[in-house]
Amino acid sequence: MSSSLFSTPLFGVALTLFAFQLAMLIYRRYQYTILNPAVVAIGLIIILLLQCHIPYADYARGGNMILFLLGPAVVALGVPLYQRRAEIMLRFVPIVVGISVGAVTSIATASGIVLLMGGGKQLALTMAPKSVTTPIAIGIANKIGGITPLTAAVVVVTGCLGAVVGPWFCRLLGIRDYASMGLAIGTSAHGIGTGRMLEIDLLGGAIAGLAIGINGMITALVMPLFVMLLE
């Protein structure tokens, strides 16, 4: 295949779609949680790029077009939210309180661990928005002086980890209520975790989708205060 084809946006788009469809086939065949399609697709793309010595910049020309679609995809999560709106309104206050606490805790723990381990301010700011969806996290990292590509990578890893072990970890803690589980996973593992939660329960997935939006707003509001604390 001509190297010029690798540098076109078509390559990145086609590779992403092919890897995800293959990952979906694998997941449907074996039904193991660890074979989450997003995790497998990412692994397949990384392996192909490394084995074929294809620069990431070439893939990113098309991959960034897929990234742009994350915004509309998050908006689409409003459909299950609308479908279960009556049940959600009955729990609205505890939901908002839970998301608020989760958002602040995520910022404090992610950046706090970095600082305690000797990392610098820039790395702490890079890690701070790890639990919000990728478009919001990238925007926040740009504004506060974080390392944007690293923030995007950490956000994806966080989502994949939450999707794979989140439901299991909630059950380990004795959380059996799907609404509570969705609240925790949506707040901590954004879109990828929410996708997994929608497979488990519609109400839990709807609350997880709500958590993505509220967590993003709260994080965007809290981050300037956090930056001032680090001055």
The coarse silhouette is globular
Helices, by number, come to 13
> What count of domains describes the coordinates?
2
Radius of gyration, whole Å: 18 Å
How large is the share of residues in beta strands?
under 5%
User: Into which percent range does the helicity of residues fall?
Assistant: over 70%
| Low-confidence residue ranges | none
Distance between the termini: 51 Å
The overall pLDDT average reads 87
Strand element count: 0
Descriptive notes:
- With 231 residues, the chain is mainly α.
- The chain folds into 2 domains: 1-68, no CATH class; 77-230, no CATH class.
- Helices cover 84% and strands 0% of the residues.
- It is built from 13 helices and no strands.
- Helix 2 packs across helix 3, helix 8 (92-116) crosses helix 12 and helix 10 packs across helix 11.
- The longest helix has 29 residues, at 202-230.
- It is globular and about 55 Å long.
- The mean pLDDT is 87.
